[in-house]
Write a structure and sequence with these properties.
39% helix, two-stranded antiparallel sheet, five-stranded antiparallel β-sheet, 342 residues
Length: 342
């Protein structure tokens, strides 16, 4: 085997000088990306069953105890908290309507996979002082519907979650910050469907009102139905062929009502008249307290026109005189024009 001759020092220096220079090093070099250690794994919280795809955020969540077993409510009252788990939003809404919570709660905000219901008597601004139906404010009653990935594995002692499902969470506090009044509540979906079922079956309106009154006696928060309520429900459901209007009144009741109204008008005129003394008026009031109103005899009143009536009559007469004078002037002018033209 041939041996190469050793490299002299002059040849080594010549070889080093002939090399090309290295490229300049950039000031900012990209950092080397490390492979994900927990790629494709999910981690769950043992308290709230919340899942996360990042191990560091999961550790922070558990370490800071950012979760709670019950929903938060800052109001100072006896809390009635709920925390339920349903398989779909349809099941959650079915529970909401079955409990007839739509009487007291109305939707405030709605987004995909997130809805918030608040007290329907809650207002964001002050009502006018003259308005009697002023809504109550600062009510903390709230129900939240939210879709989230939840851990369904058992047990949950390990951090890695092998089984998670999309669930609908319903949580909040049902306690109101004010006293509930039945006349301010809404009609629930259950009440509307029950009433429409009675109407379709041909049940008379009086029987529906009686059934509603019986249910209102059992539930203090249930207000009884009226004829107008039944009519509006039937009209909304396009049940125009159903007769829910008021029945024909007996003419005897109408005549009695007319007589009573005339009697009240006579009493009012008698009390306002200046032709009778206070003792006479006091005697009439005492007789009304003892006898029925139809049996009380009223004194005859001398109707004298008031100053307002006299002034209006004078004004009307003056206007008619002005009209007649204007007509006469017009006829005279026309006659003069005819004479001049001829």
């Amino acid at each position: 085997m041939d041996q190469q001759p050793p490299i002299t020092q002059a040849e080594l220096v010549h070889e080093l000088v002939s090399w090309e220079p290295c490229p300049p090093t950039p000031l900012t070099q990209p950092k080397a990306t490390s492979t994900k250690r927990y790629s494709g794994l999910r981690f769950h919280c043992p308290t709230c069953r919340k899942t996360s795809g990042c191990h560091s955020s999961h550790r922070t969540h558990v370490k800071k105890q950012a979760c709670s077993a019950s929903p938060a409510c800052d109001a100072e009252h006896a809390h009635h908290k709920i925390q339920l788990d349903f398989g779909s939003p349809v099941e959650a809404l079915a529970w909401f309507h079955a409990q007839e919570l739509d009487r007291f709660f109305a939707i405030e905000s709605s987004r995909p996979k997130f809805q918030v219901y608040r007290c329907n008597q809650r207002a964001s601004h002050q009502a006018r002082p003259r308005k009697r139906t002023q809504k109550l404010q600062a009510c903390s009653a709230k129900i939240t519907f939210r879709e989230a990935l939840m851990c369904k594995c058992d047990p949950v002692a390990y951090q890695i979650c092998p089984d998670e499902q999309t669930r609908t969470l319903v949580y909040g506090c049902l306690t109101h910050s004010h006293a509930l009044e039945p006349h301010r509540t809404r009609w629930s979906k259950v009440t509307k469907e029950r009433t429409l079922a009675w109407v379709r079956e041909g049940l008379p309106v009086e029987a529906i009102i009686a059934e509603s009154a019986a249910l209102a006696d059992q539930d203090p928060m249930q207000k009884p139905l009226s004829r107008s309520d039944i009519y509006r429900m039937a009209k909304t459901a396009n049940l125009s062929d159903v007769q829910v209007s008021s029945p024909e009144l007996d003419l005897t009741y109408v005549e009695d009502f007319k007589q009573i109204r005339e009697k009240f008008q006579q009493i009012d005129n008698f009390m306002k008249s200046n032709n009778f003394t206070h003792a006479r008026k006091r005697t009439l009031v005492n007789s009304l307290l003892i006898q029925p109103i139809n049996d009380v005899t009223m004194p005859t009143l001398k109707i004298t026109p008031t100053s307002h009536v006299l002034n209006s009559d004078r004004k009307r007469a003056h206007q008619s005189e002005n009209r007649s004078l204007s007509r006469q002037k017009k006829t005279q002018l026309l006659a003069k024009e005819n004479c001049s033209s001829s």
